[in-house]
Amino acid sequence: MKKTLFVAMAAVCVMASCNKQAPKMDEKSQTSEASATEMKIAYVEVDSIMSQYKFCKEYSQILQKKSQNIQNTIGQKGQSLQAAAVKFQQDVQNNKYTQQQAEAINAGLQKQQMDLQNLQQRLGAEFQAETDKFNTALRDSIQHFLASYNKNKKYALIISKAGDNILYADKAYDITDEVIAGLNKLYKSNAGSAAAKDDKKK
Fold it and tell me: What is the DSSP code (8-state) at residue 171?
């Protein structure tokens, strides 16, 4: 599983005292330039979070295993059904069935095909729901951490950097390592409980 999650968190706090007199045009321009200069900005490398955040690493393995199990299940049932269909065609050609028997067997094979399609759709929907759940939990954990982290840092804007979505970023504003270290420190592994749930289902 490889999915990119874009996390952008902005907590812009701009306080301006209001003059009783209307500001002049040049004064307004100077104030705007000063605010822009003083605004603290930082960014986080999303790819690094996906590869180094323990929650992402563990859940990626869980999802990968589930995806492989689904493929194996559908593949095995599909092969069995295909083999049964080939044998049926051969038996029909060898006149092993009456017309009534052939129709009944053919109807059974068609039902198995429909059941397999329904199973594939159901398992696919369950996997997508699990993936969405992971993405939501990932986003929430990062946002909650950044909200606490930024109480002292006082950044006006923390943006996500993934691939080339940002054309240029000075490494001086990169807080990725701090964020990953903080996330991993707070994270409690769920790999054991997740594996136990999978074993119970078998």
Answer: G
